Amino acid sequence: METIDLSYSSLLIIYALMAIPFIIFFNTGVDLIKTTVIALVRMTIQLTLVGLYLGVLFELNSLLLNITWLVVMLLVANVNIIGSAGLKLRYFFIPAFIGVAVGTGVVVAVFVFIVIQPDPLYDARYLIPIAGMILGNCLKGNVMALERFYHSIHKNEKEFSTYLFMGARLNEAVRPYFKAALKAASSPHVATMATIGIVSLPGMMTGQILGGSFPVVAIKYQIAIMISIFTAMSLSAYLNIRLSLKAGFDDFQNLRREVLK
Amino acid sequence: MAALIEFQNVTVKEQQNTILKNVTFSVSKGEKVVIYGKSGSGKTTILTTLLGGHKPLEGVVKYNGIILNRESIHKIRTSIAFIGQEPVLGEGTVENVLLFPFNFRANYPNKPDKNALIESLEKAGLSQSLLNSNVSGISGGEKQRIAIARALLLNKNVFCIDEATSALDSQSAELIVSVFQNKEFTVLSVSHDPRWFNIASRFIKIDNGQIIDDTDDRTKVKM
């Protein structure tokens, strides 16, 4: 079964749909038209470039090029996570990079190298989109985990100091905040898993069906990707917080205020 | 007598503000010291600096001859009981609150039994019937006394006490202060309550982050 291609003229019809939100924004005075136009242009340019690059990537199917692309994705994700969590990059860059790389790397390796086993194992057609989906979906969870962890300690500094003064080691004093941060990061994913297929049809599954896959194949991939995303998010958020403690707290285990933006 | 607590030219800064400036004093074992002065003068910072809540920019803090640093901080914290002005009790029943510090590895071995919990409540002037009450429903004064009972349960002989009787009625405050008269206890109490002055043998006045008076003559104390 072949996918019906979208011609450029038909894609213009889709772009024309944007007139509807623009008219709504204009009539209701929502000050978002300029921002939306910029976002639309950025999306178009970014996806076009990625499409071109992925074409080259799939064509060459080089191990070195694939790894380079994965590292670039990790770097961009890392900068995004730390900035969105309201933390300073220079303190958290290395621990967060390791946390996200290990958290997503382990799961991507299991998914691609053990479960799918493409030939070659590093086949860009599998490795890049799966790594991209897992990483992209881990972003929000990691931002929430780091943001919740550091900012709730900052907000409850007196309580945190009391734990230390009562004899808690750093790992004991941070435990309540650690638990709350991991719960906040995981809960939306748990809710998504519980409602997927009923409330929404997931993107990967829809894409595969449109691409000609049998629904059963698409479902198996969707289950695999959902579990992988959840595992990678939990592992990377856990590692991110755990590895960042040295950067986030001083010799006396007090929160270093300068790490917050 | 060798000093138990020593501050040698300690300067503490927080976000460009100097909170303590060249603070030097020492406290011997068993001494009861009242630290007093205007609000915002740096009194509480002296207590929290001893407990590693601030890292001195200059100077040295010593406890029992050991310099406060990364290696010694945990040992020093586990030797001193801190009672803050606004008690941080957490959630749950009074029993949970009293047992909370014993969840930490350093305090595991000293986990008290029910009798010890009741005894500590009674020392703080509270009834054992409170044990099963939820802390969210009790008064500010009771909360402060629960924090004191919890500090007593930790079985330390050195106490850093920050305005711990400020929310108590006269009778309760009298009872609490008398508990700390124990000659084994070394007490650093930040307070303006005359009851603490009555049991203290040393009076340190702080102004603008500096010690402006340090005397053992209570007649010279000017509030």
The structure class of chain A reads mainly alpha
CATH class of the domain at 1-79 and 186-223 in chain B: Alpha Beta
Overall geometry of chain A comes to: globular
Question: Strand content of the residues of chain B, in percent?
Answer: 25-35%
Shape of chain B: globular
Radius of gyration of chain A, taken over Cα atoms and rounded to an integer in Å: 21 Å
Mean pLDDT of chain A: 92
Give the largest interface pair and sizes: A-B, 18 and 27 residues
Write down the oligomeric state.
heterodimer
Number of helices, where a helix is a run of at least 4 consecutive DSSP H or I residues of chain B: 7
Tally of individual domains of chain A = 2
Largest beta-sheet characterization of chain A: none
Please write the string of helix (H) and strand (E) elements of chain B: EEEHEEHEHHHEHEHEE
Fraction of residues in H or I helices of chain A: over 70%
What is the strand content of chain A?
under 5%
For the termini of chain A, the CA-CA separation is: 52 Å
Major beta sheet, strand line-up of chain B: 6-7-8-3-9-10
Query: Which architecture of the domain at 1-79 and 186-223 in chain B would the CATH scheme give at its second level?
Result: 3-Layer(aba) Sandwich
Structural class of chain B: alpha/beta
The CATH homology group name of the domain at 1-79 and 186-223 in chain B: P-loop containing nucleotide triphosphate hydrolases
Q: What's the helix-strand series of chain A? A: HHHHHHHHHHH
Structural features, described:
The complex is a heterodimer of chains A (261) and B (223). Chain A is mostly helical and 261 residues long. Chain A has helices spanning 8-17, 19-28, 33-60, 63-84, 89-116, 124-155, 157-165, 170-173, 175-195, 203-210, 215-248. Chain A has two domains: 1-60; 62-259, no CATH class. Chain A contains eleven helices and no strands. The model of chain A has no long low-confidence stretch (mean pLDDT 92). In chain B, strand 4 (58-63) and strand 5 form a beta hairpin. In chain B, the strands form two sheets. Chain B has a six-stranded mixed sheet, with helices on both faces. A four-stranded antiparallel sheet of chain B has the order 2-1-4-5, with helices on one face. In chain B, helix 4 crosses helix 5 (140-153). Chain B is of the alpha/beta class and 223 residues long. Chain B has a domain at 1-79 and 186-223: Rossmann fold. Chain A binds chain B through residues 158-159, 161-169, 172, 250-254, 257, and chain B through 15, 48, 51-55, 69-70, 73-74, 77-78, 80, 82, 84, 86, 88, 90, 100-101, 103-107, 154.
